[in-house]
Amino acid sequence: MEGNMNLTLKVWRQKNANTEGNFETYDVTGISEDMSFLEMFDVLNERLINDGKEPIAFDHDCREGICGMCSMYINGSPHGPKRGVTTCQLHMRSFQSGETITVEPWRASAFPVVKDLVVNRSSFDRIIAAGGFVSVNTGNAQDANALPIPKENADDAFAAAACIGCGACVAACKNASAMLFTSAKISQLSLLPQGQAERLIRAEKMVAQMDAEGFGACTNTGACEAECPKEISLENIARMNREYFGAVVSSKG
Amino acid sequence: MATSPKLDAKIPGGQLAEKWTKFRSTVPLVNPANKRNIEIIVVGTGLAGASAAASLAEMGYKVKAFCFQDSPRRAHSIAAQGGVNAAKNYQNDGDSVYRLFYDTIKGGDYRAREANVHRLAEVSGSIIDQCVAQGVPFAREYGGLLSNRSFGGTQVQRTFYAAGQTGQQLLLGAYSALQRQVGLGNVQMFTRHEMMDVVMVEGKARGIIARDLISGKLERHFGHAVLLCTGGYGNVFYLSTNAMGSNVTAAWKAHKKGAFFGNPCYTQIHPTCIPVSGDHQSKLTLMSESLRNDGRIWVPKKQNDTRPANQIPEDERDYYLERRYPAFGNLVPRDIASRAAKERCDAGYGVGASKMAVYLDYAAAILRYGRAEANKRGIQNASEEDLKVMGKEVVKEKYGNLFDMYKQITGEDPYEVPMRIYPAVHYTMGGLWVDYNLMTTVPGLYALGEANFSDHGANRLGASALMQGLADGYFVIPYTIGSYLSGEIRTKAIPTDAPEFVAAEKAVQDTINQLMTIKGTKSVDYFHKKLGKIMWDKCGMARNEAGLKEAISEIQALRKEFWSDVRIPGDADEFNPELEKAGRVADFIELGELMCIDALNRNESCGGHFREEYQTEEGEAKRDDENYAYVAAWEYKGESQFELHKEELVYENIKIAQRSYK
């Protein structure tokens, strides 16, 4: 016992992609407010193992808010109640002792459940593979300072590139749209001179892949921006729409 | 001392500065038609793996890439914060390839191979060029050109960065290049797959056994060559700045198949991490070394001083790094900064509830930046409050994400009170022994990035891990692999029903079955924590003979306990994170023993390896160049049996000297 917080957890349990899931209730006692949300799950899992039960599967890796692996839907919000943080950076001091906390996986048809709170986000990788790059083979580059880039553009590109690909935007959206994720990459590259050559085809291909994966449409509710742990801006979606319509208008096909 | 006949480093002849150029121009090539028939397996998709997989696929090879995460973009390189070094000399401050080479050798306490390090410095500039071309948004000045900052162990500004997220941006660049090749069909990507063993056919590495982590099924994959880009083994200490999944399994399995393990005892303890807050702690968080550019490190001059930091007057503070090392001040290399922090805390000057922390203070930097900003804006007679507001804005732009992270974890605001920091395990300089071509002692088996022992000697300088990972993947392996594969163009793909593949898979299956049938009483984490404590106490920042001997017998006992009492819930034929962890911890236990054996063998102090018996009167590391100027490469001979082979380190271009940062 390290602390004096006592909580009730309602956690989604699902054996695999082919079975039905359901909520299970767990009482967790002796939690310290310095623990991260995932460390609280570590404590619960250790107890489940010691009791001869199966621990709860959840995705996590770096535990410092940058790898994008953790993905819990906590009390109706991706990554929980605090703005601008991932689940691994959410600490128990953000909760009250005695609270009941509901934890679910991301819900989207393009993110099928693997087990319990773990989902498959390979659809994001396929969107990047469709066009989220500059086609420059190793060895083709000129001197880095041969291409000055206005600081403002570089900063805006960086702000878009800060996306960690966690999928909270999709989980937050009632349509399970991946517009914020896709637009962040399109924006980053369209803001930079290096991205100009493939600008139109990139937008076209990435949007087509996004649609093919079964992500929903955007209805401008802005939940994605509000829930994004890296506070990626909605402006990126507007920019993507301009890029995309530009591409469609000029498309020869 | 003579180099063991089993270790041929294959360093090209000629002058140091000409070796790589000459090598590149004469290394045998594989023609495009043959490349299409050659398959390469790349394990791990961090900076080294993603850049290698992308570059080799661009060249025309058939590549299969594997990662245990759900996406290649999540490899732990993503978490690197501060920056990447390159000898561009954009700041006109006297940098050069030679100076980067020299700083790296000296920073490594004269325990790295000259030819490899010089090559690293030579290709460093191309890394920045390549990343910018990919659209990596490095920090820039108002004129549109790239910005630089300083890191420890250097007196120039050669570090390129993207706020405190440089690793993320570089990895996303390499990942986008990799995904482009996936989209083109040149790379087949296997996510949520873990390498379980190397498959050897007639003495060469010819493939791997991988486990699909979702279905639990074992798979056989053939490759003409196998590249391990699987990172370091800092998690042997349980608590480290590594990601939870970072592990030694791929490298350790390779070791047991004949790849020698180089300098396993060389671990880097990073000086600026958020201190441990309790037993629940699952990992430690780094505060980037870049913070030492502007932050000042201090402790109270009085022992057991319980006053809050801001109530301790200036003349009662001990800026001990500035005091002990005036030439480099707060920017001494990591090993030195870590030991100095430990020394102060052990002597009773530590701060915070645990007394195992020192202050990293931004108050002076905030005022300094505030004044510069006031000058820039032409504001005269600004009040101290106004200066602070302006200064905080500048600090926020430079380090904002790090300050936010600190606040989130500790609940304290570092803009108002000094951060509390303490050293933590961060990086491992040791790794699989490789020759100049990055090939291990197993033909056809390569190790890149942190997984090899190659370039950092006994201590790595900040911002050099990203440089090395990308150098190996983008600019070294594409050339050096030709010298092996040019001899393999007649080798047809070996069918995976060959007896070697069948036997390798069966051995893996047997181990899994053994683990699942133990059905003991203690969780995997119980053993991992226990191992971590032994390693930290006895093979951590300071080591001695008696402690290391105790650690070896404690680890042997722990291994027996693990294999008789571990409890793994669930089944092997499903998604089972506990089973994954169990396999990794089993390997960490074996590696931990070898680390202690290596530390015990090395009767000197150098870089991150500090043997208490060998120190100067001032408490600095005391090397023994006469007897220990060698790479210790260990051969696996069976359970707890390792044979030492030595590669003599010959310094032809640098005068080996006592390392001084005073």
Question: Could you characterize the architecture of this molecule?
Answer:
The complex is a heterodimer of chains A (253) and B (662). Chain A is of the alpha+beta class and 253 residues long. Chain A has helices at residues 37-50, 122-131, 151-161, 168-172, 179-190, 199-212, 223-227, 235-250, and strands at residues 5-13, 22-31, 73-74, 77-78, 100-104, 113-115, 118-119. Chain A has a five-stranded mixed beta sheet. Chain A has a two-stranded antiparallel ribbon with strand order 6-7. In chain A, helix 5 runs antiparallel to helix 6. The termini of chain A are far apart. Chain B has three domains: 40-268 and 426-485, 3-Layer(bba) Sandwich (FAD/NAD(P)-binding domain), CATH 3.50.50.60; 270-424, Succinate dehydrogenase/fumarate reductase flavoprotein, catalytic domain (Flavocytochrome C3, Chain A, domain 1), CATH 3.90.700.10; 499-629, Methane Monooxygenase Hydroxylase, Chain G, domain 1, CATH 1.20.58. Helices cover 38% and strands 15% of the residues of chain B. In chain B, the strands form five sheets. Chain B has a five-stranded parallel beta sheet with strand order 5-2-1-9-17, sandwiched between helices. In chain B, a hairpin with a 2-residue loop joins strand 6 (193-201) and strand 7 (204-212). Chain B starts with 15 loop residues before the first helix and ends in a 14-residue tail after the last strand. The chains are: A alpha+beta (253), B alpha+beta (662). Chains A and B meet through helix 1, helix 2 and helix 3 of A and helix 3, helix 5, helix 6, helix 11 and helix 12 of B.
